[in-house]
Amino acid sequence: MGSWAHFPHEADIGVIGRGPTKAEAFRQAALALTAVMTDPAMVRRVETVPITCHAASDDLLLLEWLNTLIYEMAVRGMMFGDFDVEIADGELRATAHGEPVDVERHEPAVEVKGATFTALEVRQGPDGWRAQCVVDV
Amino acid sequence: MDTTSLVRKSDHEWWIPPAGDMRVPGVIYGSEALVRDMDEKVREQVMHVAMLPGIQRASYAMPDAHWGYGFPIGGVAAFDPREGGVVSAGGVGFDISCGVRTLHTRLTTEEVEPIKTRLAQELSRSVPAGVGSHGRIHLDERELDAMLEGGAQWAVERGYGVDADLDRIEERGRAAGAAPSAVSPRARHRQQDEMGTLGSGNHYLELQRVADVYDDGVARAFGLAIDDVVVSIHCGSRGLGHQIGTEFLRDMAAAAPRFGIVLPDRELACAPVDSEIGQRYLGAMRAGINCALANRQIITHLVRKAFATVAPGATLTLLYDVSHNTCKLETHSVDGTEKQVFIHRKGATRSLGPGDADLPPGFRDVGQPVLIGGTMGTASYILVGTRESERLSFSSSCHGAGRAMSRSQALRTWKGRQVVDELAARGIIVRSPSSRGVAEEAPGAYKDVSAVVDAAHAAGLSRKVARLVPLVCVKG
Fold it and tell me: A37, B203, B278, B469: which could join B235 in a potential S-S bond, CB 3.0 to 4.6 Å?
């Protein structure tokens, strides 16, 4: 299975998703995005939001994916705690699972403004796929 | 940063001579210690900005410069459209027109101390802050357009403040040339319920005491005296600005090759000022500036209401409002010629000196208040713009402390409760919905704002007037 991590940036924070498939790496990167704000394990699966993104390249698709999640969480006042992700032919189809922000339980630390080109990379290596970038907080 | 590779022009001015594709030199302002502590990425980013078409004089970095996106945070650059000059979404950043405004309360520390706790409670109750918080104002499409066109002027017309406030805001509270039609449906949607909200991260609302005065004459002109209590608000254009930044970064990065622009870093996303996308960005970005100005104006109204409940005798008047992340058309002297140029200030404050025609009459003799935000445990500063800053940095100065430690490291180092208790023991009340947020914003996670301000003063970018220390801090 995949995993996620953060990496340091002087003012902000980097998110990394890793997985055996590109879709899993993207799912893990999304979990890393949530983890910038709150512990993903604290987010209940109460509502689902369908998401579709397109882009001309894998790295731009990652940017589009994360920015769409940032937008959907902002306008819905939600936190997403898990994701089902499929990627085919430059199109990402996903379902985001989450619930309305609960300030006491989630203790959201900071809202993410946007995903950036900084350290943006989607790559397949010997250990599987890695999807990463810095997000502005 | 390795200072041996820089050319030291004076104690606080360091040059990177043009090399490779650089069209102009890089100039970094700061003490030796500050410049040494800057990341090598700052040098790289200053050099990248110097490669952009139409850049004038130099690519500048202020004493608080740190690693940003494309441009360094603390970066200043001017572009002339008649020389193919560009406008850059990366050069303004995600939080368009993030800035600081400071209000006089006309109360002294002695008067505030007995009501400090109640004020903290009322302020944190009145001003929505933190992730997922919504304002109490919902804007329909027509009102959203009016707000994006009118900025703080719109807010005052709707009853959020008084006309006199506008005299103390850059451009009287309204960026001309805003194009609400250039703001996407997503950006508009993101803002509909966010007016009058503080946001999160390093944004704050503080009650502060004037702890030191360095220049009596200018402090008097600014209406400041030792032990006065002021309110400072640090926030920006909220979701609307973030969405505009996100979309134009993507679209300008994709469009750059069409204009023959080679981007050394995609985050420098830019387009010629005179291009369709360049003009569209300027229209949207100015709407973003107006959104930030309207937002700070509404928060000012909420702060006044909170004071009216707890301290009915207080009269809150605006000292000044400055924006940090902007691109503005200004006239500056370049090689002895007056030119209209597009100045990008990314994490930098305008610093107009005495005599500048753009200053309100009350400040024309002394210069512009330059408001520098600190952390909840250290200090903030008020400086004044200088005449020489025009020559040094297109009339720009620093904007704050800048982080010294990543958020993850801060979270490993401190607990929110511990930070709140330590500050309480020093008489500083912190109100925040997020304990984790407080830990990530711990004062120790930031650089020494005093060193930054001293360097800006010594370099002549702006001059120290007063030091403010926090009494109450409301964080998102």
Answer: B203
Domains of chain B: 3-404+446-475 (3.90.1860.10)
Structure confidence at residue B313 as a pLDDT band (50, 70, 90): confident
Tell me which chain A residue has its CA closest to the CA of residue B200.
Answer: A110
Q: What is the CATH number of the domain that holds A108?
A: 3.55.10.10
Domain count, chain A: 1
Q: What is the mean pLDDT of chain A?
A: 95
Q: Rounded to an integer, what distance in angstroms lies between the CA atom of residue B127 and that of residue B205?
A: 9
Inter-chain CB proximity A6 and B408 less than 8 Å: yes
Contact B322, B369 (CB under 8 A): yes
The residues near A96 (Cβ < 8 Å, ≥ 6 apart) are A30, A48, A49, A51, A69, A72, A80, A82, A83
What was the pLDDT predicted at A1?
84
Check residues A38 and B133 and name the one with the higher pLDDT: A38
Would you say residue A105 has pLDDT above 80? Answer: yes
- Tell me the CA distances in angstroms from B395 to B86, B350, B354, B445, one per residue in order: 20, 6, 11, 29
- Is the sign of the CA dihedral A102, A106, A110, A113 positive or negative? negative
**A82 pLDDT exceeds 80?**
yes
Residue with the larger pLDDT of the pair B476 and A30: A30
> What is the least distance, in Å, from the CA of A89 to any CA of chain B?
20
| ipTM here | 0.91
Min Cα distance A100 → chain B (Å) is 8
Residues B34-81: tens digit of each pLDDT: 999 999 999 999 999 999 999 999 999 999 999 888 999 999 999 999
CB contact under 8 A, A103 and B250: no
Per-residue CA distances from B467 to B74, B205, B289, B401, B449 (Å): 21, 17, 27, 14, 11
Which of B67, B266, B408 is opposite residue A117, by nearest beta carbon?
Answer: B266
CA B51 vs CA B55, B57, B84, B87, B152: distances in Å:
8, 12, 12, 13, 36
pLDDT per position as a tens digit, B376-400: 889 999 999 999 999 999 999 999 9
Residue A10: its pLDDT value, please?
72
Distance from CA of B26 to the nearest CA of A (A): 21
State the best of A4, A34, A78, A111 to mutate against chain B, taking most chain B CBs within 10 Å: A111
pLDDT score of A11 more than 80: no
Q: What is the 3-state secondary structure (H, E, C) of chain A?
A: CCEEEEEECCCCEEEEEEECCHHHHHHHHHHHHHHHHCCHHHCCCCEEEEEEEECCCHHHHHHHHHHHHHHHHHHHCEEEEEEEEEEECCEEEEEEEEEECCHHHHCCCCCCCEECCCCCEEEEECCEEEEEEEEEC
Torsion of CA A132, B2, B94, A22, to 10 degrees: -10
Chain A residues near residue B69 by CB distance under 8 angstroms: 116-118, 134, 136
Structural domain of residue A124, as residue ranges? Answer: 3-136
Residue A54, chain B, CB below 8 Å: the answer is no
Place of tokens 């301000």: B453
